[in-house]
C-alpha cells in the first residue's frame, strides 16, 4: 500500500528540483540577451539572411548566398553564451525595421562611452564568471587552464542543445594565448545576421585625416647581398630542395582541399576541421601568395574563386579578433593582389570589404581600436571605448596591412587609423617603466580613472545618482541618450561612471537589476569623470612585463618594415626602432652558457620592472616566438646603417639554430630556460654552475639528507645495543632466589659473562663507526662492593622515572614459598629466555614446517608491500637471491621489521636525475613548453640572414631544420604540431594552423629560391610572411 509519509521527502525534493530548473532556465533566457550572445534582440530591426555553403570537400565557385535558410555555426564565447537556447523570437524582416533601436529594451539601462570596462551596449544580468569576449586574449595569457575549461564547458553545453556536425573537430586552446582563437564548435538553426554600415559616433573631420606621406621615396640602403652567378650543379641541388619543399606543401594543401575546404584550419589526423578565426577560410586566404610563389597557378586560380564566395559581413562568431584578422585575412588578400600584379580585381574588392568592416573597431573617442570588435549591428550601432588592458601586439601590429591598402586604393582613412596608434606609441615610448620599450599590456581606453579612496570595497550602495540626461524614459541607444553621451564626451565627464574601488559592477552581474534612483531617493554622489590620457599602463598595476617575444613581437617588427613601406618618408619609425634596438640590447639580450664555448649565441629574455628606478628582473628564457628578432636586427642593420647590429642579428639567429640542434628531434621547443653567462665575453662550460641551476634548493635537501642519515645510524646503534643485551641475557644463567648465586655456575662464569657482554657492546659500537673504548677490568674489591649493594630479587634496578607500569606490577609480586623461581623478563623479548629455536620448533611442528617451506621457496605466497620490496632490494629481507631466515632474536623468535626510508639523493644525483627524467637538452635548465606548433620564426630569421649576408651557412642550417620538421610532423592528411620535441618519437597532434602554409613552408621555399624571387629590396613581408610591394 502506497504511503505518502514514506515518500514525502523524495516528493518535496523533486518539486524543488523542478522549480529550480524552471527558474534557472528563465534566468538563462535573460542572460542570453547579453553582449556575448543575443538571441531575442539581435534579429530585431535587421535584415536576416541565410546561406548554404557548399560541401567542405568541394571548392566554392559562383556565389550561392541568399538562396535558402540553413543552420549557421555558432561560437561559444562564455559560459553564459554556451547555455543559450534557440531563439523563439519571430524574425523581423526588412519591412518590419523599426526607425530607432529604442524599442530594444523596456527597462532603464545605464551605459556610457566613458565606461572603459564594458563593451556591450545593453547592461543585462550576466552569469557570474562569464567572460567578456574582448578580454579573452588577456585571460588566455594569464589563465590558460581557465580558457581550456571554458572551451570544454561550452562544447558540452552546445552539444546538449544542438545536433553535432560530423565535420568540425573538437576545440583546442592555443597554449600561447593572445591570438584571438575562438572555435566554432556546433551548429544551430539561428539565421545569419549581416553587418551593415553604421554612422560613426566619433568621426574624424575630413580636414584632420592623416594623409599618406607624399614625395619621392628616399634612397634606402639595399638589404640583399649581391649574389654571384651559381653553377649548374649548385642550381640543380638548390632546385631539388625546392621541389621537396613544394611537395610537402602540396601534401598539406591537398588534405585541406579534400577535408576542410573554405574552413579555417585542417585537422590533419582526423580529417576534420576547425574554425577559430570567424570561419572565413583562414588557411585558404593565408596561402594565396604562397601558391603563386611556388608556381602553383592552377591551385591559385581555384583558391581565388573560393575567395569570391567569402562573405565577410557575417560570421558565427560574435566578435572579430582584429589582430588575427588583419595579419591573416587582410594581409593575405593585399599580398595576393600585389604578388599577382593585380590580375584579379575580386581580391582587392574583398580586401576593401573586410577593411571597411574593421574600420568600425576604430570608432572610439581616442580612435584606439577595440581589439575584439563586436560587429553585429545591434552592438556596432552603440558607442564604445577601447579596453583598459590590451595586448601590445594586438594594438601595434596593424600598420603595414592598412598602409599598403591605403597606397593601393588611395584612401587615406586606412592609413589614418594606424598612424594615430603610432603617434601614441611614439609619445609614450620614453615614459614607460623601461624607456624605449612598451609593456606587454596597455591601457588604450584614453580614460584615466581617478583613484577614489573615500570608501572601502565593502562600504557601497548598488545605486548611484543618474545624470539628468539619463532617465528611465531614455532607452539605451535612443537619440536622446546618444546626444547626452556626445555632450558628456565633449565635456570630459563620465556618464554613469562608478568608483574604481566600488564593486557595484560585479554586483550587477550577479543576476541583479541595476537600480535607477527615484527623485526622492538618497544616493551617493557621482564620482568625477575620467581624465583624458594617451596610452598608459593598465590601472592599478604595480609591476610590468617587458619583452620582444609573444604579446609584443610584431609591434617592434613593424617599425623598420613600415619605414621601408613608406619609402623612408616618415622619420619617426627610424627613431622609434633605434630606441627599441638599444634598449633591447642593454636590458634583454644575454648569452646562454652552452657546451661549445667557441659558439657565441644570444637569446632575448623577458623582464619584469616595478618602476624606472627599480632593478630589472630578467628571466633567462628562450622562446620560438622570439626567434624573429634576429631577422629584425638584420633588417635594421641594413636599412638604418647600424653595422654593429648585424653581429647581434647573427648571434640571435644562431641561438635559435642551436636550440633546434639541441633536442632529440632536431626541433626547437616552444619555450625553455637556460643559464646566462656570468661573463658574456668569456663563457666556458661550467658543470658546477649548471647543476646549481638545476638544483637551486640543494642546501635544504642536503640538510634533510644528513638528518636522515643520523636518524638511521641512531636506529642501527639501538638495534646493535639491543642485540648485545639479548645475547648477554641469554648467556646469563638463572640465579638462586636465596643466595643470588648461579644454580649451575662455575667459578669465574659471572666474570666471563660480563666480559662477553662488554665485548658485544664494543662490537656494536664498532659496527656503526663509534670509537671502541678500552676494556677496563674492575678490581676485586669493587666487584665485592657491587655484589653487596646488588638489589634483591623483586626490586627494580631502574630509576623510578624509568619504571613502566608493567615492570612495577611485576616487581610488586612476591615469590611464593616453594614455588619455582620466576624467569627474568627482558624488555621487547617476545619469547622466553630459556626457549631456543630447537625447543620452539619441537613444541610447534607446524611453525617449523612453514619456516622450512619459506626457506625452500615453497611456502604460501603473499603480496609484498612497498616497504618489503624496498627492504628486500636493500638486502634487509631475504629473497631468492639472498636465501635465509628473517632476522631473529637469540631465542629464535622473529624480530619486528624496521622501516628504512629511501635515501635522499645528493646534489649531483638530483641534477643528473632531472636531466635524465626531463630529457633536458644540454644547457637548458627547464623545458617550459615542449611542443612545436609548426612555427616559422626561426626559419624566418635564417632566410633573412641568408638574403642579407649571402653566407651559405644559413642555407645549410635551414635544410637541417627542414628535414627535422618534415620527419616528425607528418600526419594523415597534412602536417601536424608535435607534443614533445625532447622525445625521439613525439606524438603528432591534430592541429595545423594556417601559418604552416602561409609562413613556415614559404620561408623554407624562399631560402632555396633564386635570390631575385621576392627580393627584400622589392617587397616587405608582414608578420604572416605576406609580401607587399615597396614603393619606387
Which descriptors apply to this entry?
Seven-hairpin_glycosidases; 1032 residues; three-stranded antiparallel β-sheet; disulfide bond; 6% strand; 6hp_glycosidase-like_sf; EC 3.2.1.-; mainly alpha; 40% helix; single chain
What is shown here, in short?
The protein is built from 32 helices and 22 strands. With 1032 residues, it is mainly alpha-helical.
Write the layout of secondary structure elements.
Blueprint: H1 4-31, E1 48-49, E2 72-75, H2 79-82, H3 136-142, H4 144-161, E3 184-188, E4 192-193, H5 232-259, E5 265-267, E6 272-274, H6 282-286, H7 288-293, H8 297-308, E7 319-321, H9 322-339, H10 345-358, E8 372-374, H11 377-380, E9 390-391, H12 392-396, H13 399-409, H14 412-428, E10 441-442, E11 447-448, H15 479-491, H16 504-509, E12 531-532, E13 544-546, H17 553-565, H18 572-587, E14 589-590, E15 603-604, E16 606-609, E17 617-619, E18 621-623, H19 629-639, H20 643-662, E19 671-674, H21 687-694, H22 698-731, H23 749-767, H24 780-788, H25 805-811, H26 837-843, H27 845-856, H28 866-873, H29 907-917, E20 924-929, H30 937-949, H31 952-968, H32 995-1007, E21 1019-1021, E22 1027-1029
Helix pairs in contact: 3-4, 5-32, 9-10, 9-13, 13-14, 13-17, 17-18, 17-19, 19-20, 19-30, 20-30, 22-23, 30-31, 30-32
Structure write-up:
The structure is a single chain. The chain is mainly alpha-helical and about 1050 residues long. Helices cover about 40% and strands about 5% of the residues. A three-stranded antiparallel β-sheet has the order 13-16-17, with no helix packed on it. Strands 18-19-20 form a three-stranded antiparallel β-sheet. A hairpin with a 4-residue loop joins strand 5 (about 265) and strand 6. Helix 5 runs antiparallel to helix 32 (about 995-1005), helix 19 (about 630-640) packs parallel to helix 30 and helix 30 (about 935-950) packs antiparallel against helix 31 (about 950-970). The N and C termini lie far apart (about 95 Å). About 40% of the residues are buried. The model is unreliable at about 25-165, about 175-180, about 455-525, about 735-755, about 765-820, about 820-835, about 860-865 and about 875-885 (pLDDT under 50).
Amino acid at each position: 500500500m502506497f504511503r505518502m509519509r514514506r515518500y514525502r521527502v523524495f516528493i518535496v525534493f523533486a518539486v524543488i528540483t523542478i522549480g529550480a530548473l524552471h527558474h534557472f532556465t528563465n534566468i538563462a533566457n535573460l542572460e542570453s540577451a547579453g553582449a556575448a550572445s543575443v538571441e531575442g534582440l539581435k534579429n530585431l530591426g535587421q535584415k536576416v539572411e541565410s546561406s548554404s555553403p557548399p560541401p567542405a570537400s568541394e571548392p566554392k565557385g559562383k556565389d550561392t548566398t541568399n538562396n535558402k535558410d540553413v543552420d549557421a555555426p555558432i561560437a561559444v564565447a562564455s559560459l553564459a553564451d554556451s547555455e543559450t537556447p534557440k531563439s523563439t523570437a519571430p524574425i523581423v524582416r526588412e519591412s518590419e525595421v523599426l526607425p530607432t533601436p529604442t524599442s530594444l529594451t523596456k527597462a532603464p539601462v545605464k551605459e556610457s562611452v566613458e565606461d572603459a570596462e564594458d563593451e556591450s551596449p545593453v547592461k543585462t544580468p550576466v552569469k557570474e564568471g562569464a567572460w567578456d569576449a574582448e578580454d579573452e586574449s588577456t585571460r588566455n595569457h594569464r589563465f590558460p587552464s581557465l580558457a581550456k575549461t571554458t572551451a570544454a564547458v561550452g562544447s558540452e553545453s552546445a552539444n546538449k542543445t544542438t545536433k553535432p556536425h560530423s565535420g568540425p573537430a573538437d576545440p583546442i586552446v592555443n597554449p600561447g594565448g593572445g591570438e584571438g582563437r575562438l572555435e566554432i564548435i556546433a551548429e544551430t538553426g539561428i539565421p545569419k545576421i549581416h553587418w551593415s554600415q553604421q554612422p560613426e559616433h566619433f568621426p574624424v573631420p575630413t580636414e584632420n585625416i592623416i594623409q599618406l606621406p607624399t614625395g619621392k621615396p628616399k634612397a634606402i640602403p639595399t638589404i640583399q647581398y649581391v649574389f654571384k652567378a651559381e653553377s649548374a650543379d649548385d642550381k640543380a641541388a638548390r632546385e631539388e630542395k625546392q621541389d621537396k619543399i613544394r611537395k610537402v606543401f602540396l601534401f598539406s594543401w591537398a588534405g585541406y582541399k579534400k577535408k576542410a575546404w573554405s574552413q579555417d584550419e585542417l585537422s590533419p589526423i582526423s580529417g576534420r576541421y576547425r574554425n577559430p578565426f570567424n570561419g572565413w577560410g583562414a588557411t585558404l586566404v593565408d596561402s594565396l601568395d604562397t601558391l603563386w610563389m611556388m608556381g602553383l597557378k592552377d591551385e591559385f586560380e581555384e583558391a581565388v574563386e573560393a575567395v569570391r564566395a567569402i562573405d565577410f559581413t557575417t560570421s558565427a562568431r560574435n566578435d572579430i579578433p582584429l589582430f588575427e584578422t588583419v595579419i591573416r585575412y587582410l594581409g593575405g588578400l593585399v599580398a595576393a593582389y600585389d604578388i599577382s600584379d593585380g590580375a584579379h580585381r575580386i581580391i582587392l574588392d574583398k580586401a576593401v570589404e573586410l577593411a571597411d568592416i574593421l574600420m568600425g573597431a576604430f570608432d572610439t573617442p581616442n580612435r584606439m581600436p577595440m581589439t575584439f570588435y563586436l560587429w553585429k549591428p545591434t552592438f556596432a550601432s552603440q558607442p564604445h571605448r577601447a579596453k583598459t588592458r590590451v595586448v601590445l601586439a594586438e594594438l601595434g601590429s596593424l600598420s603595414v596591412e592598412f598602409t599598403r591598402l591605403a597606397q593601393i586604393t588611395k584612401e587615406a582613412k586606412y592609413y589614418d587609423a594606424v598612424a594615430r596608434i603610432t603617434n601614441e606609441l611614439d609619445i609614450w615610448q620614453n615614459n614607460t617603466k623601461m624607456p624605449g620599450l612598451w609593456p606587454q599590456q596597455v591601457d588604450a581606453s584614453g580614460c584615466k580613472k581617478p583613484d577614489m579612496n573615500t570608501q572601502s570595497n565593502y562600504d557601497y550602495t548598488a545605486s548611484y545618482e543618474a545624470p539628468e540626461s539619463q532617465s528611465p524614459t531614455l532607452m539605451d541607444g535612443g537619440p536622446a541618450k546618444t546626444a547626452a553621451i556626445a555632450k558628456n564626451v565633449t565635456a570630459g565627464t563620465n556618464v554613469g561612471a562608478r568608483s574604481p574601488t566600488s564593486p557595484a559592477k560585479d554586483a550587477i552581474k550577479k543576476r541583479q537589476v541595476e537600480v535607477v534612483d527615484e527623485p526622492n531617493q538618497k544616493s551617493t554622489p557621482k564620482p568625477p569623470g575620467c581624465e583624458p590620457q594617451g596610452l598608459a599602463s593598465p590601472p592599478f598595476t604595480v609591476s610590468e612585463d617587458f619583452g620582444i617575444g609573444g604579446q609584443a613581437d610584431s609591434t617592434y617588427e613593424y617599425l623598420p618594415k613600415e619605414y621601408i613601406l613608406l619609402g623612408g618618408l616618415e622619420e619617426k619609425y627610424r627613431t622609434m626602432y633605434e630606441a627599441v634596438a638599444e634598449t633591447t640590447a642593454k636590458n634583454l639580450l644575454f648569452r646562454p652558457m652552452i657546451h661549445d664555448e667557441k659558439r657565441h649565441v644570444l637569446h632575448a629574455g623577458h623582464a619584469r620592472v616595478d618602476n624606472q628606478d627599480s632593478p630589472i628582473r630578467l628571466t633567462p628564457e628562450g622562446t620560438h616566438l622570439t626567434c624573429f628578432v634576429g631577422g629584425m636586427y638584420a633588417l635594421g642593420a641594413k636599412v638604418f646603417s647600424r653595422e654593429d647590429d648585424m653581429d647581434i642579428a647573427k648571434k640571435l639567429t644562431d641561438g635559435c639554430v642551436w636550440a633546434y640542434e639541441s633536442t632529440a628531434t632536431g626541433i626547437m621547443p616552444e619555450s625553455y630556460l637556460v643559464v646566462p653567462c656570468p661573463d658574456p665575453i668569456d663563457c666556458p662550460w661550467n658543470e658546477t654552475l649548471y647543476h646549481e641551476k638545476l638544483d637551486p634548493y640543494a642546501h635544504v635537501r642536503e640538510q634533510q639528507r644528513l638528518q636522515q642519515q643520523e636518524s638511521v645510524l641512531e636506529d642501527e646503534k639501538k638495534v646493535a645495543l639491543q642485540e648485545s643485551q639479548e645475547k648477554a641475557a641469554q648467556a646469563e644463567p638463572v640465579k638462586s632466589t636465596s643466595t643470588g648465586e648461579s644454580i649451575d655456575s662455575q667459578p669465574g662464569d659471572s666474570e666471563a659473562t660480563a666480559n662477553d657482554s662488554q665485548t658485544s657492546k664494543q662490537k656494536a659500537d664498532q659496527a656503526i663507526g663509534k670509537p671502541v673504548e678500552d676494556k677496563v677490568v674492575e678490581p676485586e674489591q669493587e666487584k665485592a662492593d657491587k655484589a653487596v649493594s646488588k638489589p634483591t630479587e623483586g626490586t627494580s634496578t631502574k630509576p623510578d622515572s624509568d619504571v613502566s607500569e608493567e615492570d612495577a606490577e611485576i616487581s610488586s609480586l612476591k615469590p611464593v614459598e616453594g614455588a619455582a623461581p620466576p624467569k627474568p623478563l627482558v624488555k621487547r623479548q617476545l619469547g622466553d629466555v630459556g626457549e631456543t629455536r630447537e625447543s620452539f620448533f619441537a613444541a610447534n611442528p607446524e611453525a617449523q614446517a612453514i619456516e622450512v617451506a619459506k626457506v625452500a621457496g615453497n611456502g604460501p605466497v603473499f603480496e609484498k608491500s612497498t616497504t618489503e620490496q624496498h627492504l628486500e632490494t636493500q638486502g634487509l629481507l631475504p629473497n631468492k637471491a639472498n636465501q635465509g631466515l628473517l632476522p631473529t632474536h637469540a631465542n629464535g623468535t622473529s624480530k619486528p621489521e624496521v622501516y628504512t626510508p629511501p635515501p635522499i639523493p645528493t646534489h649531483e644525483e638530483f641534477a643528473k636525475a632531472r636531466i635524465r627524467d626531463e630529457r633536458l637538452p644540454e644547457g637548458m635548465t627547464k623545458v617550459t613548453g615542449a611542443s612545436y606548433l609548426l612555427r616559422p620564426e626561426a626559419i624566418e630569421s635564417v632566410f633573412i640572414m641568408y638574403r642579407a649576408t649571402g653566407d651559405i651557412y644559413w642555407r645549410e642550417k635551414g635544410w637541417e631544420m627542414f628535414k627535422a620538421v618534415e620527419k616528425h610532423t607528418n600526419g594523415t592528411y597534412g602536417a601536424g604540431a608535435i607534443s614533445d620535441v625532447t622525445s625521439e618519437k613525439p606524438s603528432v597532434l591534430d592541429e595545423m594552423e594556417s601559418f604552416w602554409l602561409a609562413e613556415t613552408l614559404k620561408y623554407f621555399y624562399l631560402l632555396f629560391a633564386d635570390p631575385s624571387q621576392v627580393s627584400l629590396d622589392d617587397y616587405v613581408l608582414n608578420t604572416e610572411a605576406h609580401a607587399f610591394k615597396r614603393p619606387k
